[in-house]
Amino acid sequence: MNTFDLQISRFGEMAILLQWPQEVNELILADILAFVEALKSQDRSDWEYVPSYNSVTLISKSKFDFEQEKKLLLDAYSKRDGHQNTTERHCWQLPVCYDSEFALDLPMVSEKSGLSEEEVIRLHTSEDYLVYGIGFLPGFLYLGGLPQSLEIPRRDDPRLEVSPGAVGLAGKQTGIYPQNSPGGWNIIGNCPIPLFNPKLEPPCFVKVGDRIRFHAITKAEHKLRKIESEVGIYNLNKTLIDA
After folding, report:
1. Which domain holds residue 57?
2. Structural domain total, the chain
3. Does residue 153 share a domain with residue 122?
4. Quick one: pLDDT at residue 178?
5. What's the CA gap between 144 and 219, in Å, rounded?
6. In the beta sheet, which residues pair with residue 234?
7. Buried b / exposed e across 102-113, counting CB within 10 Å, b at 16+?
8. 160, 53: one domain
9. Mean pLDDT score of the chain, rounded to an integer?
10. pLDDT tens across 11-28, in order?
11. By the 8 A CB rule, do 139 and 210 touch?
12. What distance in Å separates the CA atoms of residue 164 and residue 172, rounded to the nearest whole number?
């Protein structure tokens, strides 16, 4: 079991921030998720846990003694006894249309990477991406594991409006815009499946620690999947993965 040096600090009056080493590392995320599960197994119903990349934010429903909580957290981390994350994790299969109507930056990505557009698409659909964080917008997935040849810097001129479902690349990450938003990622396609619905519980079906795999669909299939999602008959494809 990996053990890391934790930094624990106040995060406002009602929250605590736990920080692991500042790097994007799958082992760090696994340690965070296992520790969160260990904490949840204790009688800590007054706390909400928000994990992401190399940190987890603990949000309290009531005021607390920070020094006391810090001591308890450090003690719990040192005594977690190899606790493993046993929460079910899934790999979600999500369709993406890479048609030129949606793939606004695909020609530029092709040019900068030295790859054909077809090769960019093939590489983008060849990986299972780890969900490192959910944020920026409700349901925005930060996905790691992008092939190195697709690592493209953010756009120099961010768009004022990016359409819902836009699939983008930025640095070492790929992700999906869940709603209209300004954005500076390089858009290479569109996913017709909504990632966030405030009427559902949970509102985002994906969680940190899950994986995403994209598969290419045609423009006609995109239209059909979008209609199926809107009327609630689209069947999400997922497979269980090791915790």
Report:
1. 7-78
2. 2
3. yes
4. 94
5. 26
6. none
7. bbbbbeebbeeb
8. no
9. 92
10. 989 999 999 999 888 999
11. no
12. 21
